[in-house]
Every structure is written in structure tokens, then in C-alpha cells.
């Protein structure tokens, strides 16, 4: 295979975009381990005056990811995130006005490999979220696993993510007077194993916890589809029943997160690497589904609202797919 190298005369802005995305990818793949290594190093070499105060503080701060987190507007406004957004680029599209006196659950689809669209739109100040949805604050819910790593959790929380636990979602949706949005990537880790270019398989049929919590809090449901999310990476072929998929699914059940074997382009060449492809992401926010607060919803009420949500999600996809180059015969597959 002939390697296609990037030309030498690439504009500085594009080089900075590549650097911004590179640090983001490496943060997800390596930063947690590096932070854990720092703690181990401090303990091994008895730098007690550093690790004892931090671990003591960590003990008292352990619940913060379930209590709204600790976002930093300074971190969210780093110039690096503007270059990150422009690399793909990432776009946020509104189809309906949202009332800032109401709380919402955004169901984000699809998961993709690294959920770049969700991060770019809801964890940085360089999307047009504030202009499109004034008076609203979005909280991206991610796996609790990420907040169990010392030091890394501080960096992650600074961008705005919080835990995806029921307690955390309830905290966000309990704000009196509204104005909060829980952004939940509903397909979860399981769906990332099906994040292949050109595929639109969503793991949602058995995901009903978000519906129950929406009913409990009276939070409106909003389907969100991120066109282009699955185009950023390729994965090693892992069809259902293959040995690789079996191993991945077993590891996912043990560890709580999936390990997709993904690849795309490199830093200085376009043939192979862990850098995502420069493919545009269009995150389309759909019509809100009104939800009447029901403190003790019945299974029938949960099922009815779940069906309504899936219908609205399918409508959103069908209405907008043509704008983003998806063939007319392609449709969503719910699993």
C-alpha cells in the first residue's frame, strides 16, 4: 500500500487543528493512566506532603461528579477547543426553540467511537450552544469510571462532564425553575462496537431508564442525532458472533466500557493512525417531547413514552439525512 503523506505547505491553522485533536485523542487513551502513574510515583517515593493532602481532599470531594461537577469557563474557553471544533468541523443545529424554564434530557445518538460531537458541542464554549439555547446549561453525562482516576477526574470535570449515574442525572434535573439539560449518550459503550462508517445501528430498545427518570422529574425528552459521528474512524471488522466481538462484549461487561479497535489517519500521513478523519459533524437537536411529571410511573407509561421517543428520533433522522449525504434508502436500525 502506498502511503499518502500530508503536503509540507499545509496552513498553520490546519496544523493547529491537528494538534488540538491529537491532544484530545491522547487524553482519552493515555492521560488517565499517566495521572494514575503520577500518584503511584508519589507514593513509592514517599512524597507524602503532596499525595496525602490530595487524597484527603479527594475523599471529601468524591461525590462531586454526581452533584453537578465542577466546570471551569476558563478551561472551556481554551483556544485549543476552537481548533478542535474547526478540525472536523463540528456544527450544532437547532430545529426547535427550548423554554429555559424547563429541564430537558437530550438523547444523543449515535455513540460513535469517541463521541466527538457531544464533547465539541456541550463541553466547550466554541459551539454556538449559548446563542441557540439561551438560559440553558448542558451537562454531558459520561461513565463513572472516568471520575475514579485521581487527577484525571479534575481535568475531565473542568470541561463540564458529570457522571451518568441515576443520582447524577437526578441532581441535574432537580433544579427548580428549569434551565438544565442532561445530555446522555443513550447507546453507551455497547453501541460504540457498532460504530462503523455508513452504519446507523442504535442500541436503544432496552434503554428505558432515561424515560423513567424523565417521567419522575417531568423533564422533556429531546432526540439529538449527530450526523457524521460514525464516519470519523474505521474499526476492525467485528460482526455479531465473531471471536473479536465476543471478546469485546465480555470485556465490556467486566470493565464497564468497550474497547473498539479503531483506526483512521495519522498525523503526517492519511493512510493509518489514531487521528479521526476530517469529516464534518452536524449535531441536530430535535423537537422536545412534553413529559408530565409522574413520581411513580407504571411500566405502561414508560413503554408508551419510550415508543414516542423512538418515533421522534426516527422522524428527525429521516427529515435531515438527505442534507448530510445519507442515501434515501438508509434508515435507523433499533436494537
Automatic annotation (TrEMBL):
Mode of membrane association: Multi-pass membrane protein
Keywords tagged on the record: Acyltransferase, Endoplasmic reticulum, Glycerol metabolism, Glycoprotein, Lipid biosynthesis, Lipid metabolism, Membrane, Transferase, Transmembrane, Transmembrane helix
UniProt entry tagged with the keyword Transmembrane: yes
BP term (GO), one: glycerol metabolic process
Family matches, as InterPro entries: DAGAT
Gene Ontology CC: one annotated term: endoplasmic reticulum membrane
E.C. number: 2.3.1.-
Pathway field: Glycerolipid metabolism; triacylglycerol biosynthesis; Lipid metabolism
GO MF, one annotated term: 2-acylglycerol O-acyltransferase activity
Enzyme class: transferase
Catalytic activity: a 2-acylglycerol + an acyl-CoA = a 1,2-diacylglycerol + CoA; a 3-acyl-sn-glycerol + an acyl-CoA = a 1,3-diacyl-sn-glycerol + CoA; a 2-acylglycerol + an acyl-CoA = a 2,3-diacyl-sn-glycerol + CoA; a 1-acylglycerol + an acyl-CoA = a 1,2-diacylglycerol + CoA
Sequence similarity: Belongs to the diacylglycerol acyltransferase family.
Name assigned to this protein: Acyltransferase
Annotated organism of origin: Physeter macrocephalus
Amino acid at each position: 500500500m502506498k502511503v499518502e503523506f500530508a503536503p509540507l505547505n499545509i496552513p498553520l491553522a490546519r496544523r493547529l487543528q491537528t494538534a488540538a485533536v491529537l491532544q484530545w485523542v491522547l487524553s482519552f487513551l493515555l492521560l488517565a493512566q499517566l495521572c494514575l502513574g503520577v500518584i503511584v510515583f508519589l507514593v513509592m517515593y514517599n512524597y507524602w506532603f503532596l499525595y496525602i493532602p490530595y487524597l484527603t481532599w479527594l475523599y471529601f470531594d468524591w461525590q462531586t461528579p454526581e452533584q453537578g461537577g465542577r466546570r471551569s469557563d476558563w478551561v472551556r474557553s481554551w483556544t485549543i477547543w476552537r481548533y478542535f471544533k474547526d478540525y472536523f468541523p463540528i456544527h450544532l443545529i437547532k430545529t426547535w426553540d427550548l423554554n429555559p424554564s424547563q429541564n430537558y434530557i437530550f438523547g444523543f445518538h449515535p455513540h460513535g467511537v469517541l463521541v466527538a460531537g457531544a464533547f465539541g458541542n456541550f463541553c466547550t464554549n466554541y459551539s454556538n450552544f449559548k446563542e441557540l439555547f439561551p438560559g440553558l446549561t448542558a451537562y454531558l453525562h459520561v461513565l463513572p469510571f472516568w471520575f475514579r482516576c485521581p487527577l484525571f477526574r479534575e481535568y475531565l470535570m473542568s470541561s463540564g462532564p458529570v457522571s451518568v449515574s441515576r443520582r447524577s442525572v437526578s441532581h441535574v434535573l432537580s433544579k427548580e425553575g428549569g434551565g438544565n439539560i442532561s445530555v446522555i449518550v443513550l447507546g453507551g459503550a455497547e453501541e460504540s462496537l457498532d460504530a462503523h462508517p455508513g452504519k446507523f445501528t442504535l442500541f436503544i430498545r432496552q434503554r428505558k431508564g432515561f424515560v423513567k427518570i424523565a417521567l419522575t422529574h417531568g423533564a422533556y425528552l429531546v432526540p439529538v442525532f449527530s450526523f457524521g459521528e460514525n464516519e470519523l474512524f474505521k474499526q476492525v471488522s467485528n460482526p455479531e458472533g465473531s471471536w473479536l466481538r465476543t471478546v469485546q462484549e465480555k470485556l465490556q461487561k467486566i470493565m464497564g466500557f468497550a474497547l473498539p479497535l479503531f483506526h483512521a489517519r495519522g498525523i503526517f500521513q492519511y493512510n493509518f493512525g489514531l487521528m479521526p478523519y476530517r469529516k464534518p459533524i452536524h449535531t441536530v437537536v430535535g423537537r422536545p417531547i412534553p413529559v408530565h411529571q409522574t413520581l411513580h410511573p407504571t411500566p405502561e407509561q414508560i413503554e408508551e413514552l419510550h415508543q414516542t421517543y423512538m418515533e421522534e428520533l426516527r422522524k428527525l433522522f429521516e427529515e435531515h439525512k438527505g442534507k448530510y449525504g445519507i442515501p434515501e434508502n438508509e434508515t435507523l436500525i433499533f436494537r
